[in-house]
Amino acid sequence: MHIGLIGGIGPAATVVYYQRLTALMRERGKKLDLTIVQASADELIANNLADNRNAQAEIYADLIGRLKAAGAECAAITSLGGHFCYPETEAISPLPLVSGVTPLDAYFVAQGLGTVGLLGTEVVMRTRLYGQLPHTRAVAPEGNLQDVGKTYLEMAVRGAATDADRAFFFEAGHRMTADQGADAIVLAGTDLGLAFDGHDPGYKVIDALDVHVALLADLATGRATLPQGTKG
User: Fold this and answer.
1) What Pfam families does the database record attribute to this sequence (predicted)?
2) What pLDDT does 232 receive?
3) What DSSP assignment string belongs to 84-113?
4) Which of 121, 145, 161, 222 would bridge with 194, disulfide CB 3.0–4.6 Å?
């Protein structure tokens, strides 16, 4: 299956999606059919903060139309924060959408995780991943989620983590494991690898991006099929 990705939101996450997807396909000895289109991180952030779901969905639909014209058979948004308008996008998408949120709950259950702590945009944390974890208890950092979300977005746009960013997120994760009973911290923002990759914060970390990439690889190699009734 020819995979289409909406990238650019942010650029660092797009690079990681590409690297991990191509590495996984190489590991499986399979050829990857892939097209990536560029979205605007600044535009996404503005629409996310203002909750302009329909406006962002229209932007996505135009980009997905370009993916379809290039031969893609499904599309994925390379940002969990960018999923804030997923239902609105799915309703007008020219291609079936592959959610990065839907597979997470089953993954957490399979890993034996009863409680997970979330790091990501304010909306992702406040809604506990858009309310799509029916079998997993999710917690968010206590205190002002706007501060956490703002720090995350600034890092994502910058495309690099400072030492202060890393310390901030590591401590937020530590508090969720120590004080709120989180069995693992979920990087529910696709740019959080900028702070966590190559570092050991002292607790179990799950990168939601890896779960999404594994599903895309399964679709690309025919190990998985799009669910019946998927819109597009």
Assistant:
1) Asp_Glu_race (PF01177)
2) 65
3) GGHHHHHHH-SS-B--SSHHHHHHHHHTT-
4) 161
Cβ contact 127:161 at 8 Å: no
Facing residues of 35 across strands?
4
CB 89 within 8 A of CB 60: yes
d(CA 185, CA 171) in angstroms, rounded, equals 11
Structure tokens at 10: 């942010």
- Record the tokens describing residue 169, joined without a space: 């997120």
Of 70, 35, 42, whose CA–CA distance to 56 is shortest?
A: 42
- Compute the Cα dihedral for 82, 83, 84, 87 and give only its sign: positive
Instruction: Give whole-number Cα distances, 110 to 103, 106, 131, 136, in Å.
Output: 11, 6, 19, 11
Strands laid side by side in the 115-119 sheet = 137-139, 115-119, 184-187, 205-207
pTM of the model as a whole: 0.91
Reply yes or no: is the peptide bond before residue 10 cis, omega within 30 of 0.
yes
**Count of other CB atoms within 10 angstroms of residue 67:** 24
Element (H, E) at 212: helix 208-221
